[in-house]
């Protein structure tokens, strides 16, 4: 009887504690983390395994914010902010989102206090992208290289293998694209290039070291420059000569490539010589392709990159722990080694570092495509695709209205993206609109900066 009474008393005390809200009745978390790449708890993907390893290594508990919509990620973060439940660390869809909503903490003090030197080994263009005015508002999480992948076996078949053995130039690139596009054949042939509409974005930087993606130089655009005009000309030339799969009409595709479902399917069938792509696509390439592949980057050797970024929220109570966690998930050498250990197959997340020892450890384990390892040597001279990092880029590149009526169907209230498309496809002359496009791009950048002015020094 006494034993039963003791149990009842213990239960009553525990229930009372819960009613009182004591911490013993609910899990204690040191950090809350939100991201779109965590999958499900049952799936236990590499990201969740990395979090578990961090918890065990540092004896902390990280709560994963599970109620995140992958299709409406920003809206999910907004909803958490409205409920005063911002995660301590969260993935940014782009840095502008964090800045414009004023969700992000300036971590300059944390970076300066990190005496390890690891921050300085982040590829320079990716690191520079997280600075705004005098502050640092994001942590690089991942880096994905962009550029041209080559079907080496197909080139060897037609005596063009020297292209893959030398430094890529625009002339050598054009020669291969042109040669392979003469071999279309009816229903069983080949074509040179997947699509042409990235050329005008990377080309100016390949011939002018002051420019980055889409002529951005860190302060302004130069869309009225000779380099950008040349990029538009080269893009139009590819299209008019039908050197790319994208430039073919539906009738062309039915004649030359019936039953092909897009350029990736064409590539997988070994009927496409050069494909524009991203390093995160390498696992699928290895899985689906039976031929030798080499990553060539772009002519001029300034490899384009796109980054993923984490932020520490401005409501975070333990910023030092948050920084340690974000670093572990991204550029910490110990974290990178943990990823290499945990990953079973080629991963779409390569080492976010220029440390050659870590790079060698990654490629010693994973048999990724040729050329990627060599590209690491040039990353400090690379360029970052602007959409995630340049204030107002979406307006400058796509969404703002041009402000003039254009002599094409739908041109009465056209936006910048439409005007650019009409120029590189030959419907309009770029020379007639270069000055207008440059003015709009820079005005939109300055407008965005003005919107931030009151909140950032």
Main features:
single chain; 457 residues; alpha/beta; 9-stranded mixed beta sheet; two-stranded antiparallel ribbon; 42% helix; globular; disordered N terminus
Note down, in words, how this protein is organized.
With 457 residues, this protein is an alpha/beta fold. It is 42% helix and 12% strand. The chain contains 20 helices and eleven strands. It has helices at residues 2-19, 46-58, 73-82, 95-101, 108-113, 124-128, 152-157, 170-181, 199-207, 226-240, 250-256, 262-268, 282-288, 319-329, 333-342, 356-365, 372-375, 393-399, 416-424, 434-452, and strands at 31-34, 62-64, 89-92, 131-132, 135-136, 139-151, 191-193, 272-278, 293-297, 304-312, 383-384. The strands form two sheets. Strands 1, 2, 3, 6, 7, 8, 9, 10 and 11 form a nine-stranded mixed sheet that branches. A two-stranded antiparallel ribbon has the order 4-5. Strand 1, helix 2 and strand 2 form a beta-alpha-beta unit. Helix 2 packs across helix 15 (333-342) and helix 15 (333-342) packs parallel to helix 16 (356-365). The longest helix is centred in the C-terminal third of the chain and has 19 residues, at 434-452. The chain is globular, with a radius of gyration of 26 Å.
